[in-house]
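// run 5 | inverse folding | seed 20
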């Protein structure tokens, strides 16, 4: 029976010193043209003492023309090399592994930053924040695969011990996997094998470009919770294939911009079984865990030592993934390991405005503000201040979205 303080050895030989993973949170600290800043470095210096043995960074883009939000890092920007080295070094003193999360948003690149998003097929997102996408050509698909591999190779060079592919939340890897979003009739769509090909080739290309001990993790959805889309059965099949390929760590999450079940924890959180067990995707984890050997992280809903310890003890997970509690407590990992009764104070944040709440804008904005405060050495706030954080962050995004477009023009 594993406990939170036990180490975990991955296939790569990497030993993680405990079972707590700080899940990815977009730091929103990059410049409009995707440059890493010194705030990224100071944030991870603080989080290196958080008690988590593994920190997944906020998503970094493999193509600066296709961002999921303004203020995200462009992983392939030549000028980022120096600060990426410093960022990677922040974990060394505490033996904390840092894996940048690599992403291409596909059609989930909002019109605020992108007038010409791409996707496997021309299936628009039902949300007026996005311009309808055009379908990628085969040459463009190959180029994106190369970009993932090139980014991973550069990040390894910078000193990071692994990367995580963002295959969850409806971005491009998820779009290829989903029969709803992927209607292609060439070798990249149709059958399960064809829909899986994109992520498989990204994985193989990264392996070919990186060293033996380098870790490749992936975050996938347990389901897209969308009719005709990526189902739980698809997800289990994907996990089995990734396991066979040799992926080092699989993180389970759920939802997308069209259906943000993860961020709101909507359907899952309503279930009586979920309320009792804290995390949203544990039932799914139990099913998939029996069928794979790759260690499993479940993220979404964990708030207490007790909840995480129980999930580990049940054998459903190998590691607890936690995001929002780390944004309001830069030592959350240490607190849960040291105190079996510790509970994070985070609570749902709502504005009362339906459209804002449906996309969890308040929630994301509030935590984004707290992350910025940690990066500047300021005390985090303890309670949300009406709609103000959302408006402030939205204004910053809008202003920088314009700057992103100017830079890219
Ligand atoms: C401010 C913020 C930014 C996020 N950015 C990312 C991201 O870049 N990549 C990602 O995979 N998930 C991202 N997430 C989702 C979290 O990783 C996590 O899956 C979700 O918050 C549920 O976990 P929690 O209940 O522990 O917060 C973000 C969440 C928040 C609150």
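// decoded
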């Amino acid at each position: 029976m594993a406990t939170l303080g036990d180490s975990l050895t991955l296939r790569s030989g990497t030993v993680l010193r405990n079972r707590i993973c700080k899940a990815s949170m977009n730091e929103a600290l990059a410049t409009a043209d995707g440059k890493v800043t010194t705030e990224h470095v100071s944030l991870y210096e603080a989080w290196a003492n958080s008690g988590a043995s593994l920190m997944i960074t906020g998503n970094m883009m493999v193509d600066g023309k296709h961002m999921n939000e303004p203020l995200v890092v462009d992983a392939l920007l030549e000028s980022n090399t120096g600060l990426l080295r410093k960022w990677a070094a922040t974990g060394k003193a505490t033996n904390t592994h840092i894996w940048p999360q690599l992403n291409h948003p596909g059609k989930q690149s909002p019109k605020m930053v992108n007038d010409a998003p791409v996707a496997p097929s021309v299936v628009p997102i039902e949300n007026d924040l996005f311009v309808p996408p055009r379908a990628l050509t085969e040459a463009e698909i190959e180029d994106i695969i190369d970009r993932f591999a090139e980014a991973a190779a550069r990040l390894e060079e910078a000193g990071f011990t692994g990367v995580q592919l963002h295959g969850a939340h409806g971005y491009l890897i998820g779009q290829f996997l989903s029969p709803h979003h992927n209607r292609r009739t060439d070798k990249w769509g149709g059958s399960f094998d064809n829909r899986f090909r994109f992520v498989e080739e990204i994985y193989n290309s990264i392996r070919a470009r990186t060293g033996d001990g380098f870790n490749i993790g992936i975050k996938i959805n347990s389901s897209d919770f969308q009719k005709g889309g990526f189902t739980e059965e698809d997800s289990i099949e994907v996990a089995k294939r990734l396991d066979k390929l040799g992926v080092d760590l699989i993180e389970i999450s759920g939802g997308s911009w069209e259906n943000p079940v993860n961020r709101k924890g909507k359907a899952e959180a309503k279930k009586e079984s979920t309320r009792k067990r804290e995390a949203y995707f544990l039932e799914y984890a139990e099913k998939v865990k029996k069928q794979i050997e790759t260690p499993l992280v479940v993220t979404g809903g964990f708030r207490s030592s007790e909840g995480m310890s129980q999930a580990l003890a049940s054998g459903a997970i190998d590691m607890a993934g936690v995001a929002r509690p780390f944004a309001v407590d830069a030592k959350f990992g240490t607190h849960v390991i040291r105190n079996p009764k510790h509970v994070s104070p985070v609570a749902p944040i709502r504005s009362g405005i339906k459209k804002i709440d449906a996309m969890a804008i308040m929630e994301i904005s509030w935590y984004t503000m707290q992350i910025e405060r940690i990066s500047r050495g300021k005390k985090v706030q303890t309670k949300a201040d009406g709609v103000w954080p959302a408006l402030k962050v939205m204004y910053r995004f809008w202003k920088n979205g314009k700057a992103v477009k100017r830079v890219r023009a």
